[in-house]
Write a structure and sequence with these properties.
The protein folds into three domains: about 200 residues, TIM Barrel; about 130 residues, ATPase, nucleotide binding domain (Nucleotidyltransferase, domain 5); about 170 residues, Nucleotidyltransferase, domain 5 (2-Layer Sandwich), CATH 3.30.420.40. The longest helix has 25 residues. It contains 17 helices and 21 strands.
Length: about 550
């Protein structure tokens, strides 16, 4: 069973708890959780924090230790009509309410009264969970309450801290869980941790819940949206990205180069507006905006130091957009953000050390070390396409000779294909392409599959050069995963199988059981948008 969240935890702001939110987040990350609910007691409990604790929650980052922090409260029912010990100042500053019953706040009554209290409190749109539902002090009509939970999309809590009581466990197992299953309502396992090492400690709950359904990812806490922008020489692609790294709104505007940076910023702002409209949200609801740009960019300042494609030179793109959109702006190289996108929500999800090689017009590189983008001290790192693989070899556009890009880009493959066709007028590549002007990256591969010798020779040479370059990457970084992207990756096993054999044969690896995994990028053109949208996570 995969647990993704612990939504009932306390910090030292509650007097009888002993850990900070940072310590709790670190423990949640160690436990493999994606979400952590910060739910200190509300105002009627004797150990409740000062009201400013809740009013100032906006200063807490949305992510700590890579875990999404849900800023909530454990509010107590104070009456049998669903009243809670929460005021407007707290209510409007929290994302999540765990509604519980405790003796100091509500006197135990009849089962009918408790049932009414639970059903009424669920009318509150921020109540996401009924806490301590196994308590013997507050019996209720399990069938009626779970039916209401299903109707109002509220989860029943299985509080692990109560597993010390065999009676509570028995009640959960024999009555509450079967009733939840019968009525189709969600259950959620929470630790109610008052010390960080208890967060995500759900082993005792696994046997109890085996075969049952849990849900937390689609609950109704406020979803955080970020904008990702893929700024290219031809198009400006904008996407609204949610917490699950899904694009929920898009727009596409022509770049129309050459033109001043101010006009490009105007177009980006328009694209943001259109993408937000498609997503059904307002621009003011956006947490941050990230931009992937060709060239060299300072992520911390938002300045594009140099981009020949866009005509930028020390251009304060972040400042221009901050003026227009009023939110935090982050700018990074486009290959880097694409790599980051694959790590967050693509083929490399779950890996910390990853290199992504993109085979397009050139050869792009993105390096992720310890879950963070590596750019070098001067933001020029990861130009892996300009590592020389043949001394004094083919001329590269960068001015050097023998660069990886000159042999392994899609452009290089097309050039080699055309040369082979000129040398072999009987090659099947002529019929496949139709004319030399229509040659693409597939032509030689298609000819090889048709048994054409010239096509096979082109592919073999291309794969040898590509294998050489990829092996150099492996030997330099020894990443957990090496991903390749670009249109050529559509060749599938015809591409990856020979490369795997080449890397296995040539790479420096003393432990075959801990060797780099070769994979194909999953997100395609969306990788740059997803990665850019999440640049705020890397803020220094």
């Amino acid at each position: 069973m995969k647990f993704v969240a612990d939504m009932h935890t306390h910090t030292l702001a509650s007097d009888h708890a002993y850990s900070t939110i940072s310590e709790n987040a670190a423990s949640a990350a160690k436990a493999g959780l994606s979400y952590l609910g910060m739910t200190d007691h509300c105002i009627n409990m004797e150990d409740s924090p000062h009201i400013w604790h809740f009013c100032n929650m906006g200063v807490i980052p949305h992510f700590l230790s890579g875990v999404r922090i849900i800023k909530g409260v454990e509010a107590d029912l104070t009456g049998y009509n669903g009243e809670l010990d929460i005021n407007d100042d707290i209510y409007y500053n929290v994302e999540w309410i765990n509604a519980s019953m405790h003796n100091p706040c509500i006197i135990p009554g009849t089962a009918e009264q408790h049932t009414n209290a639970y059903i009424k409190v669920m009318d509150n749109p921020k109540v996401c969970v009924l806490g301590h539902t196994e308590s013997a002090d507050y019996p209720y009509d399990y069938d009626a309450v779970t039916k209401a939970c299903k109707e109002k999309n509220v989860a029943m809590e299985f509080n692990v801290s109560r597993f010390r009581s065999q009676t509570s466990v028995q009640r959960l197992h024999d009555i509450i869980l079967p009733t939840c299953a019968k009525n189709g309502c969600y259950v959620i396992v929470d630790s109610d941790a008052h010390f960080c090492d208890k967060i995500g400690a759900f082993k005792k709950a696994e046997a109890l819940l085996k075969g049952s359904e849990m849900c937390i990812r689609d609950r109704k806490y406020n979803i955080m949206y970020n904008i990702g922008i893929d700024l290219g020489g031809t198009n400006i692609k904008v996407g609204v990205v949610n917490d699950d790294f899904k694009i929920v709104g898009k727009s596409n505007i022509k770049t129309d180069l050459p033109r001043p940076a101010e006009e490009i910023a105007d177009s980006i702002a328009k694209g943001v507006e259109l993408a937000c409209k498609e997503a059904g949200i307002d621009v003011k609801d956006i947490n941050s905006i990230g931009i992937g740009t060709p060239g060299v960019a300072d992520r911390n300042t938002g300045v594009v130091l140099y981009s020949c494609n866009l005509g930028f030179n020390n251009t304060d793109l972040g400042g221009l957009l901050k003026h227009r959109l009023g939110t935090d702006i982050y700018v990074e190289n486009d290959a880097n953000v694409a790599a980051y996108g694959e790590v967050l929500g693509g083929a490399a999800k779950g890996y910390k050390d990853v290199v992504v090689i993109t085979l397009g017009t050139g050869v792009g590189g993105g390096i992720i070390i310890g879950g963070k983008i590596y750019t070098g001290f001067n933001f020029c790192g990861a130009e892996l396409g300009h590592v020389v693989i043949e001394y004094n070899g083919r001329q590269c556009n960068c001015g050097r000779k023998g660069c990886f890009e000159a042999y392994s880009s899609a452009t290089a493959l097309i050039t080699a294909t055309k040369k082979a066709m000129e040398e072999d007028k009987d090659s099947a590549m002529w019929n496949i392409a139709g004319s030399i002007d229509k040659v693409d990256g597939k032509t030689a591969f298609d000819a090889m599959r048709a048994g054409d010798k010239s096509g096979k020779a082109v592919v073999d040479e291309y794969l040898n050069y590509l294998g050489c370059g990829l092996t150099n990457v492996v030997n330099t970084f020894q990443p957990e995963m090496l991903l390749i992207g670009g249109g050529i990756c559509k060749e599938g096993d015809y591409l990856t199988k020979p490369l795997e054999e080449y890397i296995k044969r040539e790479s420096y690896c003393i432990n075959p059981e801990r060797s780099t995994v070769l994979g194909i990028c999953k997100l395609g053109n969306d990788a740059g948008i997803v990665g850019a949208a999440n640049l705020y996570r890397l803020k220094d």
